[in-house]
Design goal:
Blueprint (H helix, E strand, L loop, with lengths): L4 H23 L7 H8 L3 H7 L3 H24 L5 H18 L3 H13 L7 H24 L8 H22 L5 H16 L4
Helix pairs in contact: 1-2, 1-4, 1-6, 4-5, 4-7, 5-7, 5-9, 7-8, 8-9
């Protein structure tokens, strides 16, 4: 069934708003950002913004859900091609890093909410967003458990390994984006994987 011109325009306007929201929420936390800022960033009127998203919360949740869905699609399509458990961890990390490079405004939004989720902090976005983090944490935990079973990493407990793995990736991403944005994303991911395996890899 062919998509109508009106539907295409609606989707294009929605994406324009989400890109503007990435930049605004990337610069300012939710409570400080405003719908007026997003409308100005997107160069559309307030009516056009509210037609797509009736509230700031629905816009914020819609942004994270849309981008997270894109990540999940990439993970599902790509992880199936890799067999080695350590390689699969690297693929997962590379998709995150490449996504942040492509849409850098999403990085601080994603990481801010992930920190809240990891520490069990209350959030008005819990029901809408935290379920996505729960699903992805189960995926990462499964990858780490497979690596542990294969003898690629030491038996340090899946919760610790997960936090350590994500922590090294976040540290490498911060170093990359804040200090060496010219380096290849693959280099950023390799640094994270080297640090993770140096600390948690199987003893020779």
């Amino acid at each position: 069934m062919r998509e109508s011109r009106r539907e295409r325009e609606r989707k294009q306007r929605r994406e324009l708003i989400l890109e503007a929201a990435e930049r605004v929420f990337g610069r300012r936390p939710f409570d400080e950002a405003s719908m007026q800022e997003v409308a100005a960033e997107a160069q559309i009127g307030m009516q056009g913004l509210y037609e797509q998203f009736p509230s700031k919360q629905s816009l914020y949740e819609g942004l994270i859900a849309d981008r997270f869905y894109g990540l999940q699609q990439q993970w599902a399509a790509t992880l199936a091609k890799a067999r080695d458990p350590v390689e699969r961890l690297g693929v997962w990390a590379l998709i995150i890093a490449a996504t942040f490079q492509r849409i850098p405004g999403f990085a601080p939004v994603f990481l801010r909410e992930k920190v809240h989720h990891n520490w069990g902090l209350s959030s008005r976005f819990g029901p809408a967003i935290y379920g996505m983090f729960d699903t992805e944490e189960r995926r990462v935990r499964g990858l780490l458990e497979a690596a542990e079973k294969a003898g690629a990493v030491r038996k340090l407990g899946s919760d610790f390994l997960q936090q350590f793995f994500i922590g090294t990736l976040v540290a490498s991403l911060h170093y990359h984006f804040r200090h060496h944005p010219e380096e290849e994303v693959k280099t950023c991911v390799n640094r994270a994987m080297d640090c993770f395996l140096a600390g948690a890899g199987a003893e020779p």
